[in-house]
Amino acid sequence: MEAALLTYAKWRRRMCKTLLGPPDGLHLRGASAVNLRRFIGCAVREFTFLAKKPGCRGMHITTDACWGRCETWEKPVVEPPYIESHQRVCTYNETRLVTVKLPHCQSSVDPTYTYPVALRCDCGVCLTSTTECLTFV
C-alpha cells in the first residue's frame, strides 16, 4: 500500500508539472513579468477562447480569467478513505458578466452569448456550481 501511495504521489507531481508548467516571463493582470513556473498563488490572467453556440459562427473572445497554483496536500491515514487531503483550487472570487452578439446566427437562434470576466481570484474549495472540478479516483 505504501509503495502504491508513493507511486501515485510521484504521478500527481509529474502531472502537475506537465499541466501547470507554462513558459517563463508571462504576465499576470496588474503585475510585472513573473516566472509562472515558480508562482504559487492565484491571479487574474488574460485568456482567449472560442465562444460557440449551435446555429452561429464561433467568435474568439479575450477575457480575464483565474490562473494559478494553490497549496494542496495529501497524506495517507489508517482509516477509510485512507487519504486525508487539503485541496484548494484557483477560482473566481468576484466576476462581472459580459454579453456579446455572435456573428452569422440562423434567424431562429438568439445571437447573445454571456461569459464571466474575472475581477478577483483566490485559492478556495472547488465548487461544482461555479467551476468544473476534476477528480481522479
Automatic annotation (TrEMBL):
It is found in: Secreted. GO terms for molecular function: hormone activity. Its main location: secreted. GO terms for cellular component: cytoplasm; extracellular space. Gene3D superfamilies: Cystine-knot cytokines. Pfam families: Cys_knot. SUPFAM superfamilies: Cystine-knot cytokines (SSF57501). InterPro entries: Cystine-knot_cytokine (IPR029034), Glyco_hormone_CN (IPR006208), Gonadotropin_bsu (IPR001545). Heterodimer with GPHA2; this heterodimer interacts with thyroid-stimulating hormone receptor (TSHR), and hence stimulates cAMP production. Belongs to the glycoprotein hormones subunit beta family. This is Glycoprotein hormone beta-5. It comes from Scophthalmus maximus (Turbot).
